[in-house]
Amino acid sequence: MSQLKIKEALFKLCELFVNKRSQTVHEIISSNQKALQSETKSSAGDKHETGRAMLQLEMEKASQQLEGISLMNQILSKIDILKLSKNVCLGSIIITDTANYFLSISAGQLVVDGKNYFAISVSSPIGKLLLGKKQNDGFVFNGNRMKINQVL
Questions:
Q1: Do 7 and 34 lie in a common domain?
Q2: Which of 105, 107, 125, 127 is nearest to 116 (CA)?
Q3: Domain region containing 131
Q4: Which of 35, 119, 131, 140 could disulfide-link 107, Cβ–Cβ 3.0 to 4.6 Å?
Q5: pTM for the predicted model, two decimal places
Q6: Mean pLDDT (the chain, rounded)
């Protein structure tokens, strides 16, 4: 599989990750809104208020998750998969002697063409270490010495 096809596939998997997450959060919000609307005052007033307060907290949490999803979409929109750079930058695939990384969003482990890649954000600890590095550069992460074999 060509470098461009791998980068395209990784990018699409990141988009899919964000879309699934967005769908889940929207479902939670919808469910909580329905629950809030169906909550009616009962003789157990304190219990009612506690239930509403818990639903409100869940709604706030979901709202914060939506902000995170929006930020991930912004980051993905800045990635140019056609861009080639000798230095690690947003959108780079980094092949090291221990693991493969795609510098984009924190989406965890992705598999493309039978190979594992870790989608990491530029603000993650390893993302910060990799940013600006180039082929044959070494770095230490979690006490492990690693070497960059290739930047795609």
A1: yes
A2: 107
A3: 93-151
A4: 119
A5: 0.88
A6: 92
